[in-house]
Amino acid sequence: MDWLALSNEEWTAIRLSLKVSAVATIVSLPFGILVAYLLARGKFWGKSILNGIVHLPLILPPVVTGFLLLILFGRRGVIGAFLNEYLGIVLSFRWTGAALACGIMGFPLMVRSIRLSIEAVDRKLEEAAGTLGAGPAWVFMTVTLPLILPGVIAGMILAFAKAMGEFGATITFVSNIPGETQTLSAAIYTFTQVPGGDAGAMRLTLVAIAISFAALLASEFLAYLVGKRVHIE
Amino acid sequence: MTLVVNARQTLGEFVLDAGFTSDGGVTALFGPSGSGKTSLVRVIAGLSKPEHGRLVVDGETLLDTESRIFVPKHKRRFGYVFQESRLFPHLSVSQNLAYGRWFAPKTTAPDNFDRIVELLGIGLLLDRRPGKLSGGEKQRVAIGRALLSAPRLLLMDEPLAALDDQRKAEILPYLERLRDETTTPIVYVSHSVSEVARLADKVVIMKDGRVEAIGMPSEVLSMPSTDRRDAGAVLTGVVETIDIPHRLATIRLSQARIVVPNAHAEEGRSVRVHIPEREVMVATRRPEGLSALNILEGAIAAIEPDGEGMARIRIRCGGDTVLARITALSVERLDLKLEKRVFAVIKTVALER
Asked: Is B190 helix (H, G, I), strand (E, B) or coil?
């Protein structure tokens, strides 16, 4: 069973992938909830434009998204130069850049899921909370958020899964640097490009399957726990 | 407590233009569906904003469109009981009950959790989820939740309309206790004469978005404008005895006694009885061999023909006036005249509450 043992480099790629995906999911969550709320409830000019921009990564070829990120967030890009100069944050060719690319690719999936659950919330319950003395922020925290929790969890799992599988945008934006930006998918791709890399590719493929399954089971379990708590009539 | 409200609001085709004042107690907004009762209560609660309107409670202006005052709903401290209980499905019953209390100013929230739980009979439900409650239980919890937010005014929007008759009968006694044992003024929306008759101290009759009449239940509920089928006398009395085997209660009115079905009555409690006028028969001699339990002797105080073959007879029985709706033909045949001695015959079954 020697061929099953993972090399150090492979471990690094797995850890990096998990880190990138987790950070991408968690950091994009507040923005995801905010944008989903705006799209579900907001009435403002340019709502359909916002909706379009959010969904763009879903429609565009990932390489195009990666290239746009490179233009915007690269060291000489409009936003990248600003971040570098004033905040000392460099995204290009760093794992943080990979997290940004993964977060943006998963964002439409997260927003869709959360938006649907916000639209399904019975607004009469929020009205009732208001008459009981809860201000809008409290209503959101104590009524809306608990009721949309299943949708939020589903959105997070989708975004995480998308981040684990993200390849095109990441490799275009931050390249394929072992130990810094070489994620699981990129590592598998690299293995397939060298002679005798099949065993490594197979090992990582099995790991990818295991992680995806674990994420799926975790989401099912969380949904079950939440479902047990919330009995929507 | 004083409440002054006026509102004008256009909702599509419908125009609400109504207002009333209240000095506490139970004020019922009464009228057919679509008459604007709920729209008016939503204005009071701050759930909708009228084009023109004013709302003053105890001298504090909560809404004045002229001076652009609009206190948002969560700062008004009005409890609202909705037609559908609107309990939070993700919280247990006790968490639902505690929800409003958490936002109430600590100084004004008396520690009355146990008392309200007892008053509404929901002690055994505290650990359950709202999804596992019956309709009547849900509504009692919703009333408790509103009360525990320490409201200065309780708004109840058809709280019984979604329930069947049995559930209604189960909750009405709790509402009577609520009226008698708490000082919180109530605005009660209903289209049911019997509910209004039992609960209200003052009735505001609404029709097509306007206020048609305001007065005591005994005055306005016998007015011809009320739904003809339910019009009748509203009498106040005290529960004197309860006949448990037969499930009946005897209520002492000013002088006469009347037997009603016992729906959770308590001895010594003051209750109102609504006697629909179409359920009352008139006899000139004391009838015998009759199943009806209530035969009240009195004198005719008025005969009001409606011009459509019917007449309303007012019969003074001791200090109470019973209304009877009979045909003009019967008036002729019995030779009914003012001050003539007659017997009002009322089936107990017709008084089922």
From this structure: strand
